[in-house]
Predict the structure.
Amino acid sequence: MGFLVALGAFIAAIIVGVVFFVTGHDVLGIVLLLMSLPFALATWVKWSDRGI
């Protein structure tokens, strides 16, 4: 379950980063694209600790 939540967070962060980058917010887009993997890993760890 934690893996699926992390995968969804990863894909959502990439989509939001691309949207920011395309609409002219270059710095925010690049930051979100770079932070998508650590964000997904943190989400995976948090959801895996819950034992759901």
User: Anything to note?
Assistant: DSSP finds two helices and no strands in the chain.
